[in-house]
Amino acid sequence: MIETESNKQTQYLTFHLAGEEYAVGILKVKEIIEYGTLTVVPQTPPSVRGVINLRGNVVPVVDLAVKFGMDPSPITNRTCIVIVEVALHGEHAVMGMIADSVSQVIDLPRSELLSPPAFGTRIKADFLHGMAKAGNKFLLILNIDRVLAADELGAHAAVISSRTESLTGNVLPE
After folding, report:
1. Tens digit of pLDDT for each residue in 39-60?
2. How far, in Å, are 55, 60, 127 from residue 154 at the CA level?
């Protein structure tokens, strides 16, 4: 069989957030860690819960529920932080996002991806790559670069960087 763009498989990590199932491209995911203590950084957007020390690197952690206009994610024994690499102002940045729970890695042919709806979701359509059928529901596939590189977060990256420099003594790349 000749491989075409429409029949290539793409893998996604699925996770739950506020009762909905979302997915992010597996190539963006670096690791999944247990939710632990966060250091709160003043003057950051409400969606930035704080920063963590990940093997000597300061990593901001975003609560996607707050980013999407929902109540903050409750912390349970299944809550975790999904570490992703995103494009932020033309540079690669490592960030964490809180998930209520992580489900699985799935293969989806690109031909099964549907365009994001203009209405009916809790989040902006430009935060979505698309949707895919998952059982009786739809899986919302996030464009994580757009979600985490939104102007609100980018405007505060310098604050996080300058505050965390003084905490760790390390100079972070800008």
Report:
1. 999 989 999 999 999 999 999 9
2. 23, 12, 15
Closest by CA to 98, choosing from 140, 119, 130, 70, is: 70
Q: What is the pTM of this model?
A: 0.79
SS3 133: strand
Tokens of 8: 């290539």
Identity (one letter) of the amino acid at 59?
V
> Residue 15: helix, strand or coil by DSSP?
strand
Amino acid at 69: G
Can you name the CATH fold of 6-168? OB fold (Dihydrolipoamide Acetyltransferase, E2P) (2.40.50)
Domain boundaries, the chain: 6-168
Query: Does residue 61 have a pLDDT over 50?
Result: yes
Q: Rounded CA gap, 160 and 164, in Å?
A: 6
